[in-house]
Design goal:
By secondary structure, the protein is of the alpha/beta class. It is built from six helices and eleven strands.
Length: 225
């Protein structure tokens, strides 16, 4: 897979390093000469250019990219890059970094964004996830379909503890995608049982989040009554 990353700062370089380790082709684009640190990510391609300029993106051959990541520290730049990537070059997947949570509402399909990642929101969510059991935590927002990646750690008193996945009547527009149990990452099957302490990751419509949280956090006594 070929990935272009606009923004070669700490965030862009970190993403590039992980993608390269997983065998992908990576192109880092930045207009600041001081950001071009080839020695830090030597396996990546580098381009000194303004990612908001069509001529720069032509030089980057963006039409050959499977994914574009707008990872600069400027939300305006990330929106422009996303829009150009989607509308001018037909890039299938566009991921954009949101620096200011107040701008998050802009990062949607109208601006070519498939996935918006709010760094402050994600950090906040990770803190919440570390201290909250039984509370639904939103980790990531997907633009298409108004869906979010959400997480909940199943409390001991949950009525669903010990229940098989296939026996749970999940809310509409909700999909359980992963169970994290200790150090194991499980792809849930109908026969798997839910256990107290499981970290459950769902893709869910925002309108269903409250219903999902109520279902997972309901106490056994509540379910019996």
């Amino acid at each position: 897979m070929r990935v272009a990353i606009a923004g070669a700062g700490a965030v862009g370089r970190s993403i590039a390093g992980e993608l390269l380790e997983n065998g992908h082709e990576v192109l880092l684009i930045d207009k600041a000469p001081t950001a071009i640190s080839v020695e830090r990510v030597p396996l990546a391609e580098w381009l000194l250019a303004d990612a908001c300029e069509i001529t720069s993106l032509d030089e980057a051959a963006l039409q050959r990219c499977n994914v574009v990541i707008a990872a600069t520290g400027d939300d305006k730049v990330n929106l422009v890059v996303s829009l150009l990537a989607k509308t001018e070059y037909g890039v299938p997947r566009v991921v954009a970094r949101v620096n200011n949570p107040k701008n998050e509402w802009l990062f949607n399909e109208s601006w070519g964004v498939d996935v918006a990642v709010s760094t402050p929101r994600l950090m906040s969510a990770l803190v919440e996830e570390a201290v909250s059991v039984g509370d639904l935590v939103r980790l990531l927002r997907f633009s298409h379909g108004d869906a979010n990646l959400v997480e909940l750690t199943l409390p001991e008193e949950s009525a669903l503890a010990g229940t098989q996945v296939g026996d749970v009547q999940w809310p509409e527009d909700t999909s359980l995608v992963t169970i994290i149990r200790g150090t194991r990452v499980l792809t849930p099957s109908h026969e798997d049982s839910l256990e107290a302490g499981d970290e459950l990751l769902f893709v869910a419509a925002q309108a269903r989040e409250e219903q999902l949280e109520d279902l997972l956090s309901a106490r056994r006594s509540d379910a019996a009554s």
